[in-house]
Amino acid sequence: MILDLDIGNTLSKWRLKDTVSSEIRSRGAVWTREEWRPGADIPDLDVVTAVRISSVARKQVLDETVELLRKQVGVVHVAHSTREALGVTCGYEEPQRLGVDRWLGALAGHHLTGGCCSVDCGSAITVDFVLPGGKHLGGYILPGLRLMKESLKLGTRNVAIDPDTEVDTLLAPGRNTVEAVNHGIYMAAVSAVNRLYAEVCDREGVALPLLLTGGDARVVARGLRVPHALWPDMVYAGLEALYPLTAAERAGRLSGAPDQPRVPDLEKLRSGLALTQML
To answer: Is 101 a catalytic residue?
Structure first.
């Protein structure tokens, strides 16, 4: 089995992948601050032959995790953001400062669609752009839905946005404080993604496929004006592309890859952008 780890600052997600069939056998998550001990919420390391890690947690957390895993598993791959990988050139002046989850998302997106706009809707919302030739332009970091809500300190932090709510409802004025907060932060998030996508595509002269991942991707996606695809395993797919360990991965078939989303007509995109700039 292959253990894939996506270690965040607060939550660490994992999955077990069959080395032969490439099927995902199980998934889970634990708080990053907890010590790594196999149990009810953590896979049995006795069945693991290789580990692939993406981590944006503190260096100490990563170092301790790697040290523990290397005592029990023969192969441990730790992803890092680099100047170039898999035909993609990092747009950061200091590539090592780019969050590796963003880098892996960009690599996976480029592998699937060539140029792409990859959006990760987690604690923060990150938006990265890769041109068809593999040039990563850099990106944007915005507070995620929960962070925006917590910053208001209005006692609504634990009232989540229902992802099944009709988008027209989420964009309408709220009729109580909870609705006003939820609808306001939702409007801020989707408006930002819509505008950033249109602005960059206009400036670069190319409409890019739009891919979304992260815990809030489904709800954010419902408010977007352009075609898009959801790819929950996009960070894991970046690990697969960087460290292919199964026959399917070596053949370029990445986990959960969606159908390539169609791209909007660039001139229509520019017309819509021009209208918003007049308002």
So the answer is: yes
Residue 7 is labelled as binding a ligand = yes
13 assigned to a ligand binding site? yes
pLDDT digits (tens, 9 = 90+) for 133-190: 999 999 999 999 988 888 876 655 555 676 667 777 888 888 888 888 888 999 999 9
* Catalytic member of 18, 63, 101, 265: 101
Domain locations along the chain = 2-78, 101-242+256-278
- DSSP assignment letter at 96: G
Second-level CATH architecture of 2-78: 2-Layer Sandwich (3.30)
Reference 125, options 189, 35, 59, 169; nearest CA is 189
Q: Which fold has domain 101-242+256-278?
A: Nucleotidyltransferase; domain 5 (3.30.420)
Cα–Cα distance for residue pair 132/260, rounded to 1 Å: 14
Is 135 assigned a ligand-binding role in the annotation? no
